[in-house]
Amino acid sequence: MELLKKIEGKQAKLGVIGLGYVGLPLAVEFARAGFTVIGYDVDARRVGELMAGNSYIPDVSSAHLAEVVKNGRFVATTDAKRLGEADIIDICVPTPLRKTKDPDMTYVVQAVEATANVIRKGQLVILESTTYPGTTVEVVQPTLAAKGLTPGTDFYLAFSPERVDPGNPQFQTKNIPKVVGGINPDSTRAAVAFYSQVMDHVVPVSSPSVAEMVKLLENTFRAVNIGLVNEIALMSDRMNIDVWEVIEAAATKPFGFMPFFPGPGLGGHCIPIDPFYLSWKARQTGFECRFIELAGHINSSMPSYVVDRIGEALNTTKKAINGARIHLFGVAYKKDVSDMRESPALDVLELLHRRGAILSYTDPYVPTLEHGDLTLTSVPEQDAGPGIDCAVICTNHTVFDYASMPRRFPLVVDTRNALKGVSSDRVFRL
Questions:
Q1: Single pTM value for the model
Q2: pLDDT per residue over 63-93, tens digit each?
Q3: At what angle do helices 290-315 and 208-238 cross, to 10 degrees?
Q4: I need a labelling partner for 275 at 20 to 30 A (CA). Which of 31, 104, 154, 305 fits?
Q5: What is the tens place of the pLDDT at every residue in 164-178?
């Protein structure tokens, strides 16, 4: 296979469609390994930033980006025709949900069509976007094959689920095991050879559907267990039991227990969304995913519960949410990142806004926020305090001065156990 020789000699050119949290780290990693990489994105602003050597992804340093731009190993473009230069095309576009909780495949379809316009013999096409089992064979393959080339012979096709964890310093693109499933053995062999040039460990599986299911299982596992512990938190509140102490004690068991933690809701692009991809696909076969649906219901109810806790806290000072000055600490979906996708803090803000609260927030990673008819600017932490009726810890960023919060604010609602060990009638926990 000629492509294998080019991959092994680092002569194969890589085209990456979508330069976000998945595509950009992948592109820069391969460029730093000696491959020539063409990054395609429809956002001209993004492309301009990248070509200036400025990274907008925390997990990609501007120094590393600038290095590969300067030496010509990486170029970003809005011209989809340049993908025709690539020997390998890696699709890394978002896969959101519609309001009806069914998959929105718009970005994948557009990326596949752009690929189909430049497809040629000997190319390897890989889909990394999280999706339902069957997408690679049912959606991607027919579109590419319509150009007159035979899949698995004239060109190679595989699925490899992205597994990035934004803000995780321990696990990044290079050392996260890479699952790969091709439409035939040659496709799998080509994809394994490609990823093995950069990734420490590549795990081949028998088909794209298995690889697609792997990612959904991983995130459904997390969503269901988070749903369970959120329900335990609601139950513990009724019983006047500290759920955080319960989890900490249970985690001392050296086998048979894995700690999960409650919170204000699920956020990020994967965990709140991926389980619904699986349940939607299952319904096509007549199978009802009751665990998944129930976990989704519980997790989506948590922002409302947080607002109720804020109301309970304010009630102790004879105040209502309507007209109260409420300040949120952290609005990103998880600590120490800027990613706002599906952040439960947005739901908390919206619910508080509907009830007439006067809102403000502090988040060093999110300087401005627009959600619905809300437009807010982050307040420096040292300036937050005067006039605030209740502070709410929604995202437990490392940089926050938690120790001072019970002294600075008349009430603190802590949804993340950031004030562990603090005993005060001013502090209300989840």
A1: 0.89
A2: 999 999 999 999 999 999 999 999 999 999 9
A3: 40
A4: 305
A5: 887 778 888 889 999
Average pLDDT over residues 245-251: 97
30-47 pLDDT per residue, tens: 999 999 999 999 999 999
Q: Does domain 2-206 have CATH number 3.40.50.920?
A: no
Q: How far apart are CA 267 and CA 265, in angstroms?
A: 7
Active-site choice (92, 270, 390, 394): 270
Q: Work out the angle between the directed axes of helices 23-32 and 62-70 (0-180°, nearest 10).
A: 60
| DSSP secondary structure code for residue 175 in this structure | G
| Superfamily designation of domain 222-429 | NAD(P)-binding Rossmann-like Domain (3.40.50.720)
Residues 6+ apart with CB under 8 A from 142: none
Number of H helices, E strands in the chain: 14, 15
Among 159-168, 339-348, 412-421, the minimum mean pLDDT is found in 159-168
For CATH 3.40.50.720, list the domain ranges present in the chain.
2-206, 222-429
Residue identified by tokens 């298995």 is: 210
